[in-house]
Amino acid sequence: MKLVVIGIGDCGSNIAAEFVRLANRARAETGVDVLVRSYAINDDPAQLNALRKVGDKLITIQLPAPAGPGRESEAGAEMMRANGDRCLATMRAGEFFETDAFMLVASSAGCVGSGGISILARKFKERYVNKPVYALIVLPLTAESNVPAYVYNTALCLKSIDKTADAIFLFDNEKVMSEASIKSAASNDALNREIVTPFFDLLRASEKVDPKFLGTSNIGIGDIVQSLNGWTAIGYGKAQISSYGLSLFKRGDHFESKGEETVKAMEAMSSALAHFSIQCRMEDARKALYLLCVPGKNANINMARSVGNRMRELTNNGEVRGGDFYGVKDHASVTLIASRITYLDKVKDYYERASKAVEELRQKETPQP
Ligand SMILES: Nc1nc2c(ncn2[C@@H]2O[C@H](COP(=O)(O)OP(=O)(O)O)[C@@H](O)[C@H]2O)c(=O)[nH]1
Ligand SMILES: [Mg+2]
Fold it and tell me: Which residues line ligand 1 (CB under 6 A)?
């Protein structure tokens, strides 16, 4: 699947740049293009400047500095109302014909991205009616989630993007940070790597790959598009395969290698279930997608089937699609998508806290007698 990624605000722009790195990896490892172009839209020239080092797959679009002092979601929306058409005019629309979907990215807590994303998403929906418009939203850290402006911005951002985008991938920054900090000091770059990595296998496996990578049932772009709707969580899990297991595998020693492969596939699946981008219950997902990646041609058909069956159980017979892919060398990995999620604690919580946050913001604005 080929994306055009559009990051708005600081967080969105950083993630748009990270998608370029992901795409470079996909080209190097699998020989496919999963990114048509990334755009970073922000009002901070220094940040945009710093991002240019990722190369010409990223185009930066500078917004004028905001007119008023307000750094709330509405100010961001206003900025995009005033500049959205100019942003679109800057983009290379000629490349959009080879694009399978647009992915707009922002944090919900800030201003530029939080307010701007839904305004821009609507413009894309109106202009490119037959292409899906997806959103990727990063929710605030726990330490930030008591700041009234962050709560208010998040609620506003979620309410409006829910009405606009075809599907919304939600990432809980706190969860992402705890994952990233296990591996290294959790910088923004580390967080953003955690955020884009789950898309790696999915995007490349759905492209026209070398036949040696093809699994027993391939996942197509149509499968992805049909699986995505409304609130969406993505999870990715990996299990290293021992060199002993791999050598058995190469010898085609079916009986034993099957054993280790299947165990590893299930281990990767458990890890994916434990690492969803936002806390959710599979039974609340009406749609789901899985992708199993294992090395080599000898993997057995039952492995993908087991993952699929487990997904159907977990979703109470939800609409499940999936497939497998052999483009990995030394591990098994499972990518899971839970989509059309009917209930999310986090979303409900932000909606409920929004009115209190408005109250607190007003009190701050009005000087007390
Ligand atoms: N994961 C991640 N979160 C970020 C990044 N930059 C900022 N954030 C988060 O985004 C929120 C602030 O929004 P920001 O993107 O700076 O606002 P904007 O520039 O006005 O759109 C806070 O919750 C930050 O924790 C980033 O590069 N990665
Ligand atoms: Mg900013």
Answer: 9-11, 14, 106-107, 109-114, 138, 140-141, 144, 173, 176, 188, 191-192
Please determine, for residue 71, whether its predicted confidence score (pLDDT) is greater than 80: no
Asked if 338 contacts 285 with a C-beta cutoff of 8 angstroms, the reply is yes
Q: How far is CA 269 from CA 100, 168, 222, 277, in A?
A: 27, 22, 23, 14
Ligand 1 centre from 184 Cα, in Å? 19
Alpha carbon of 86 to ligand 2 centroid (Å): 19
Q: What is the pLDDT of residues 184-196, one digit of tens each?
A: 888 999 999 999 9
Q: Which ligand is nearest to the CA of 14?
A: 1
Other CB atoms within 10 A of residue 326 CB: 22
> Which ligand 1 atom minimizes the distance to the CA of 116?
21
**What does the block give as tokens for 297?**
């041609």
Q: Ligand 1 centroid vs 188 CA: distance in angstroms?
A: 9
Q: Which ligand is nearest to the CA of 154?
A: 1
Which of 60, 159, 168, 77 has its CA nearest to residue 123? 77
Beta bridge partners of 233: 338
Q: E-strand spans in the chain?
A: 3-8, 35-42, 58-62, 101-107, 133-139, 167-172, 230-240, 285-293, 319-325, 331-341
Q: Among all ligands shown, which has an atom nearest to the Cα of 79? A: 1
Looking from the CA of 331 toward its CB, the CA atoms found within 13 Å total: 11
Break the chain into its structural domains and give their ranges. Answer: 3-205
Q: Is the pLDDT of residue 17 over 50?
A: yes
Q: pLDDT by residue (tens digit) across 279-299?
A: 999 999 999 999 999 987 557
Q: Which of 95, 280, 87, 271 is nearest to 169 (CA)?
A: 280
The architecture that CATH gives domain 3-205 is 3-Layer(aba) Sandwich (3.40)
Distance of CA 68 to the CA centre of its chain: 32
Amino acid in the structure at residue 32: V
Supply the pTM of this predicted model: 0.95
Q: Under a CB-based contact definition with an 8 Å cutoff, are residues 299 and 323 in contact?
A: no
CA 110 / ligand 1 centre spacing (Å): 7
